[in-house]
Amino acid sequence: MKNLPSATTHLNETEAHEVFGWILDGEIEDASIGSFLTEMSARSETSDEIAGAARALRERLIPIDAPDGTVDCCGTGGDGHHTLNVSTAVSLLVAACGVPVAKHGNRAASSKSGAADTLEALGLDMDAAGRTAEKTLNEIGICFLFAKNHHPAMGRIQPIRQKLGVRTIFNLMGPLSNPAGVKRQLIGIARPAYVPIYAAAKAKLGTERTFIASGDEGLDELSLAGGNELADVKGNDFEMRRVVAVQANLPHAPVEAIRGGDPAHNAKALEALLMGAPGPYRDAVLFNAAATLIVAGKTTDWTEGADMAGEAIDSGRAKQLMADWIELAQ
């Protein structure tokens, strides 16, 4: 067994790549991993550590082939707000707008209902969705890449994460390790001040275009409640900006307005959204969908992006896509 360095010591990218390789390969005792992760999180992970750890995870994943222009939209989780599943709904709307979406996700680690939990409650067979991921992505433009199917090295880490019940660097590594190798993403993180650090990690790894976003209240997605920190990452560089809902012609709403619950509760809300229900949940989804459509190159305008996503709901295309997905993933 290997010995972990002190969590108070900042690792460079090469060191982080090596250390997290040890962790993922089972060369570290489980008992020491939890404290290492929590102590690292407490002093804040560096961009070098995130990039190095993500490279280690990428080297051990099981990839899929994806169409050109495939995107992902996800949050790092661990924000403690327990909101409805925004990025899951965004994935359906964006795919209904003609952009292939490889939704990378998992069951809840520190929330009440992860993307997989909610989609399963809607009737999607998660095991079948995993087996048919390439098929559904190519035929209807959406798939769910269940982390457990594509990151076998995470099998021994997941129980540790669930026991900790708090965000760790593994929350940050996941969105950077999509098995479809997406080059365009919207990633929400739970710490506004951390956006430039995470953006620097993404820039080290390279991207065609990625938005890193965080609501001022620590929401791991674009928030309606107030302002948002946003990093626009292109290639190996990024620039920071502020984004608010009115830029997409959407009203402000408190985070409490999109508070979620267990998988059944969240699935019912998502089903109502696809049926055309108005309100803050729809607005939050449209805001984040607009960002994803901008990243995908479908538009350059926030309001146009929100309108495109809204039309995907109102036309019934997003609802039909969900039905087709359930039927095809057999």
From TrEMBL:
Q: Where is the Glycosyl transferase family 3 N-terminal domain?
A: 10-60
User: So where does Mg(2+) 1 get bound?
Assistant: 87, 221
The UniProt keywords, alphabetically, are: Amino-acid biosynthesis, Aromatic amino acid biosynthesis, Glycosyltransferase, Magnesium, Metal-binding, Transferase, Tryptophan biosynthesis
Q: Which SUPFAM superfamilies does this one have?
A: Nucleoside phosphorylase/phosphoribosyltransferase catalytic domain (SSF52418), Nucleoside phosphorylase/phosphoribosyltransferase N-terminal domain (SSF47648)
Q: Kindly list the positions annotated as binding 5-phospho-alpha-D-ribose 1-diphosphate.
A: 75, 78-79, 83, 85-88, 103-111, 115
- Keyword rRNA-binding set for record: no
- Stated EC number for the protein is 2.4.2.18
Assembly and interaction partners:
Homodimer.
What is the protein's given name?
Anthranilate phosphoribosyltransferase
Organism of origin is Qipengyuania vulgaris
State the encoding gene: trpD
